[in-house]
Amino acid sequence: MVVEVESFFGVYMLYCINPKFKGRIYIGFTVNPERRIGQHNAGRHRGGAKRTSGRGPWEMVLIIHGFPSDIAALRFEWAWQHPHSSRRLSHVSRRSRKESSLQFHWRIVSNMLRAAPWNRLPLTARWLKQEYRMDFEPSLQPPLHIPVAFGSVRAKKKLPLQSAGEEEETSRCFLCRGLVKVSEKLSCFHPSCGMSSHVICLAKHFLKSEPSNLLPVEGQCPACHHSMLWGSLIRHKHGCFGDLEEFTPSASQSHWADELQM
Questions:
Q1: pLDDT exceeds 60 at position 243
Q2: How far apart are alpha carbons 66 and 255 in whole angstroms?
Q3: Cis before 57? omega within 30
C-alpha cells in the first residue's frame, strides 16, 4: 500500500547497491520521494545530486516526514549530514570502526529524534525498504508521538486553486466561535465527536499545561475530552493517520507556529 500525504516535506536516506560503492549513504531533502529517487538514479543531468551521479543504483531506504515546512526539513537534513557541526548533536560520538555507514547514520537520526526541537514535531520515521530496517537502541527510543511506519509514501497532489468567485467551505471554530476554513482546520478524529477548530486555537488550548513550549505534544479535545496526540491530529489532517494505526509550504510561506505568541 502506498500512503499519500498532503504538504509533504521529508528527509531521506539513500543506500548505494552498486558493488563498487556498496554501502555508501546519502542524506537529502524532498517534497516528492518517488520523483527524487528517479532523479538520483538518472544522474546529475536529470536532476540528481553530484555525489550520487554515476554511482547508482541507489535505494531510498528510510525517510523522516511530517515537518511543518521546507525550512524545518532542510535544517534537519543539514544536521543529519553534519552531526559533528551541529550544537544540538555535540553529545553524539563519531563513527566507530565496527559501525557500517548505515548503522552510523541510523544512530545519528535516532539521537536527533530525541533532541530539541525535533522531539516535539509530529514526525514519522518510515522504513521504505524493510530489508534495511533497524530497531532503536533501548536508550535511544523516540518520544511516543513519533511512530515508526513501513511501506511506500507519496506526496499527495494539491487540488487546483478555487476560482475567484468560489468560496472555500467554512465552519465554526469550537474554541473562538469564529469562521474556520478547511485549510486552517483541525478536527477531532473520534467517531462520536464533531469538534473542529483553528489550528492555532487548538494549539494554544493544548499548550495551557505547557506554557513554556511553542509546539504542543498532546492534550484533551475541548469537546469530547479524549486525550489526543498533536501528531495524530496533524497526520489525520494530512491523510496518513490510518496508515500509522495499522502499523501500531515553501520558504516564503508562514507556518501556524509562527503566529503563536508565548
A1: no
A2: 13
A3: yes
pLDDT of residue 22 exceeding 70, the answer is yes
Tell which residue, 11, 228, 257, has the closest CA to residue 124.
Answer: 11
Task: Note the residue count of the chain.
Answer: 262
C-alpha to C-alpha distances, 139 to 21, 135, 180, 249, nearest whole angstrom = 32, 11, 42, 34
In sequence order, what are the beta bridge partners of 5? 155
Ramachandran area for residue 7 (φ above 0: left; ψ -120 to 50: alpha; else beta):
left
Q: Which amino acid is at 100?
A: S
State the CB neighbour count (10 A cutoff) for residue 166: 7
Q: Which residue type does 44 have?
A: R
Strand-pair category, 148-150 with 124-127: parallel
**Residue for grid cell 535516532:** 110
pTM: predicted TM-score of the whole model, two decimal places? 0.77
Query: What is d(CA 173, CA 195) in angstroms, rounded to the nearest whole number?
Result: 8
- Provide CB contacts within 8 A for 180, sequence distance 6+: 170, 171, 172, 173, 196, 197, 198
CB atoms within 10 A of CB 233: 24
- CA 88 to CA 83: how far, in whole Å? 8
State the pLDDT confidence band at 56, using cuts at 50, 70 and 90: confident
- Return the residue matching grid coordinates 559533528: 84
Q: How confident is the model over 38-66, as a mean pLDDT?
A: 91
pLDDT at 214: 79
